């Protein structure tokens, strides 16, 4: 039994027929790291938002199930659902510069979930925050806890957000392009850190990214998304040795090679885009969405 | 240290501002037609009478000379005597100031409560019919100026449904045990709630008239910045932690969204104090504004100068206070 299981999830713009997600199904087992790959606009972030209940007001879920630990989130009343998400899931956001509240100190921003939602005592929560900050290799934990976000660097803030995500020992963490907004030199450290913490805590991780290089390093399995349709669902070795879908093959071929830094960039060929679009259209006709 | 420096700088510019205000007012009220001496003398007074009285008040000297005499008096805390009542200007003005301050602060509180409630409700129920109703109400409140609201309130709650007092500051038959002119504050401190209620009931209508347009401005701006803040990543992150929408609005969005509103409230509060001049007249409220109108009608030059200077001091003081509060609330400015 998977910890998270999404079945035939469809979403569209409110009051319009524009589909954003098309019968998406995917599983994340306890402790598994699954990559969610696709170009911008493919709907990969929308899946994360649908799980966490933070979809924009303009988007509505038009069908399917999101089953978290045996409970269908979409049938829960919103207050119950919020509490369940708060207790079992966490988000590592994309942009560390905007994901911390500028008018509050770091300490309370890490401990607030533990104290307010999970009912920990303040001192326990603070001890926990200190331990986690040390775990994400922040030296001066006392000073950092008392700092305001603007006093810290972007890499430092992303470490804090990672620590904060792991603070309540969630069963599932959704990492929404956690390194995209960072400096290339910092990206690698942050990736290593997420992978290390994931392994140590045994947390399941849904890793949303457009970077196949990242996926190959961190994930065990992946789903490839195009226009809200899952084109391929493979384990990492299978995907990198024998991708099933033509779009996946083109995507792999388009990944820049570090061994050939002067080589020109290969885009996904137009013909492949055409056939993939046709596949999406055919899916829409057969599913009557 | 930097903080002290910037406060000192502000105080210096404040004095320059006050000097400029004094200079302009002094000259303008002497250049416009109308003569205080002519207002004082009975019909049939001789040229000699006029000249004698003019000399008595020092109005025969050149305007720059008069200004220097007045300024040297002000430096020693002497703002001259009122021409109509013969009392010292400073004493007159300070006796009326508490009434106006209490009225303005009460209006500000009403505006913050109404405007804040509107903004928070509108944000919590965004996209609903309630939000649309709040927007329409705000638009109406904004498009009618405070003195018109005053007239509307007098007609509605003073004439058609006489619920509130619409004239004066306190019921004249009541015995007042007060030693200052801060009636409302002192009634509360002396635990005389009977008096407090009477005074508050007198103040409520003029305060509401002053508050309505400001409430609309606060409501509109705060709702706007709240709605923008609600889209930011840290608010979304707080939602995923399990917090309710209301908690997210009050604890995550509000502390950040309130900053632009605060600056605006400071500016608008000075307009509100300016509005007391007409509103006090409308409600026969014994404040500084009412006194200002009488002073202008009687061409009471020293009194006009004194009142204008006091208004200018209040304006600059409020602006200074807003800047300090802003720095206190915004951690990014505190150390800068």
Label this structure with key terms.
heterodimer, A: 289 residues, alpha/beta, Rossmann fold, four-stranded antiparallel beta sheet, 11 helices, 10 strands, B: 336 residues, mainly alpha, MetI-like fold, 2 domains, transport (chain A), AAA+_ATPase (chain A)
What does this structure look like?
The complex is a heterodimer of chains A (289) and B (336). Chain A has one domain (4-103, 171-287): 3-Layer(aba) Sandwich (Rossmann fold), CATH 3.40.50. Chain A starts with a strand and ends with a helix. With 289 residues, chain A is α/β, with parallel strands linked by helices. Helix content of chain A is 43%, strand content 22%. The model of chain A has no long low-confidence stretch (mean pLDDT 90). Chain A has 11 helices and 10 strands. Chain A has a 6-stranded mixed β-sheet with strand order 6-7-8-3-9-10, sandwiched between helices. A 4-stranded antiparallel β-sheet of chain A has the order 2-1-4-5, with helices on one face. Chain B has 336 residues and is an all-alpha fold. Chain B has 2 domains: 2-75, no CATH class; 93-334, MetI-like fold, CATH 1.10.3720. Chain B is built from 14 helices and no strands. In chain B, helix 5 (89-124) crosses helix 9. The longest helix of chain B is centred in the C-terminal third of the chain and has 38 residues, at 245-282. Chain B is globular. Classes of the chains: A alpha/beta (289), B mainly alpha (336). Chain A binds chain B through residues 52-54, 57, 79, 82-83, 85-87, 89-91, 93-95, 98-104, 112-113, 116-117, 148, 150, 161, and chain B through 127, 232-234, 236-244, 247, 252, 255-256, 329-332.
């Amino acid at each position: 039994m998977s910890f998270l299981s999404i079945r035939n999830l469809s979403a569209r713009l409110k009051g319009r027929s524009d589909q954003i997600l098309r019968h998406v199904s995917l599983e994340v087992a306890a402790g598994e790291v699954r990559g969610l790959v696709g170009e911008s606009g493919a709907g990969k972030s929308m899946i994360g938002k649908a799980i966490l209940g933070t979809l924009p007001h303009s988007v509505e879920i038009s069908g399917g199930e999101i089953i978290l630990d045996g409970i269908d989130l979409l049938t829960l009343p919103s207050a119950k659902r919020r509490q369940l998400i708060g207790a079992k899931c966490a988000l590592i956001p994309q942009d560390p510069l905007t994901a911390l509240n500028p008018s509050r100190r770091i300490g309370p921003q890490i401990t607030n979930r533990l104290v307010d939602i999970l009912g920990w005592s303040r001192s326990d929560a603070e001890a926990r925050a200190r331990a986690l900050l040390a775990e994400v290799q922040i030296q001066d934990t006392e000073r950092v806890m008392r700092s305001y976000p603007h006093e810290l660097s972007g890499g430092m803030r992303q470490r804090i957000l990672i620590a904060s995500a792991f603070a309540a020992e969630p069963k599932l963490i959704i990492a929404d392009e956690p390194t995209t907004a960072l400096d290339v030199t910092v990206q690698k450290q942050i990736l290593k850190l997420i992978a290390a913490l994931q392994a140590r805590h045994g947390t399941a991780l849904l890793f949303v990214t457009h970077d196949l290089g990242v996926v190959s390093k961190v994930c065990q399995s992946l789903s490839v998304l195009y226009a809200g349709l899952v084109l391929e669902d493979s384990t990492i070795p299978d995907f990198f040795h024998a991708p099933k879908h033509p779009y996946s093959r083109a995507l792999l071929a388009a990944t820049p090679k570090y061994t050939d830094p002067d080589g020109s960039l290969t885009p996904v060929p137009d013909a492949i885009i055409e056939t993939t679009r046709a596949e999406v259209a055919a899916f829409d006709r057969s599913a009557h969405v | 240290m930097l903080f002290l420096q910037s406060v000192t700088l502000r105080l210096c510019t404040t004095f320059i501002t006050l000097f400029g205000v004094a200079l302009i007012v002094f000259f303008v009220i002497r250049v416009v037609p109308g003569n205080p001496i002519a207002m004082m003398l009975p019909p049939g007074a001789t040229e000699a009478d006029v000249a004698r009285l003019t000399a008595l008040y020092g109005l025969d000297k050149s305007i720059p000379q008069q200004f220097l005499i007045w300024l040297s008096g002000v430096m020693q805390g002497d703002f001259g005597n009122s021409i109509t009542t013969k009392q010292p200007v400073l004493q007159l003005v300070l006796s009326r100031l508490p009434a106006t301050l209490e009225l303005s602060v009460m209006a500000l509180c009403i505006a913050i409560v109404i405007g804040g409630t509107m903004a928070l409700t509108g944000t919590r129920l965004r996209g609903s019919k309630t939000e649309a109703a709040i927007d329409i109400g705000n638009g109406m409140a904004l498009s009618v100026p405070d003195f018109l609201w005053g007239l509307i309130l007098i007609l509605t709650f003073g004439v058609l449904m006489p619920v509130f007092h619409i004239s004066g500051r306190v019921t004249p038959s009541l015995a007042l045990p007060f030693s200052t002119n801060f009636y409302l504050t002192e009634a509360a401190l002396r635990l005389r709630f009977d008096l407090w209620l009477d005074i508050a009931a007198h103040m409520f209508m003029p305060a509401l008239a002053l508050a309505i347009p400001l409430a609309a401005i606060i409501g509109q701006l705060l709702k706007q910045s709240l709605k923008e803040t609600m889209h930011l990543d840290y608010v979304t992150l707080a939602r995923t932690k399990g917090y309710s929408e209301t908690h997210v609005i009050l604890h995550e969005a509000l502390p950040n969204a309130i900053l632009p509103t605060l600056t605006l409230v400071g500016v608008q509060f000075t307009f509100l104090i300016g509005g007391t001049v007409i509103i006090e007249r409308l409600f026969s409220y014994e404040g500084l504004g009412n006194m200002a109108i009488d002073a202008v009608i009687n061409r009471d030059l020293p009194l006009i100068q004194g009142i204008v200077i006091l208004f200018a001091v209040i304006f600059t003081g409020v602006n200074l206070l807003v800047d300090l509060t802003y720095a206190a609330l915004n951690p990014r400015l505190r150390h800068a």
